[in-house]
């Protein structure tokens, strides 16, 4: 649990399945919060700009730690770190994250 808070932006090192699962759960919760804020957006209100600002802030602050833990998980599984770019491809990113969660460590 200590590594979840101390190494949130560290690209070096390794992340086991438990640490990756905690980050994934936090990412899902943050996504639901952003969706809830997005549902309150109305075109005619001043609060729309505030909600858009908070949505971008929430998503921006949650993306860097999640990409870092994905990179550490790839290091743990002995896969090359450049596979992190698969997160940028729609639909493949969901399969990639599920695979990262359930794959076992491979031998070199």
From TrEMBL:
Alphabetized UniProt keyword annotations: Membrane, Transmembrane, Transmembrane helix
InterPro entries: DUF805
TM annotation in the entry: 20-37, 49-69, 81-103
GO cellular component, one term: plasma membrane
Pfam families (alphabetical): DUF805 (PF05656)
Protein name stated in the entry: DUF805 domain-containing protein
Organism encoding this protein: Paenimyroides tangerinum
């Amino acid at each position: 649990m200590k590594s979840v808070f101390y190494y949130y932006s560290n690209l070096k090192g390794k992340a086991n399945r438990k640490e990756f699962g905690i980050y994934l759960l936090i990412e899902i919760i943050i996504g639901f919060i952003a969706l809830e804020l997005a549902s309150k957006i109305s075109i005619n209100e001043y609060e729309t700009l505030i909600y858009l600002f908070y949505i971008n802030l929430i998503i921006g602050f949650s993306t860097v730690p999640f990409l870092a833990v994905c990179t550490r998980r790839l290091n743990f599984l002995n896969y090359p770190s450049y596979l992190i770019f698969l997160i940028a491809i729609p639909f493949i990113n969901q399969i990639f994250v599920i695979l990262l969660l359930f794959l076992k460590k491979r031998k070199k």
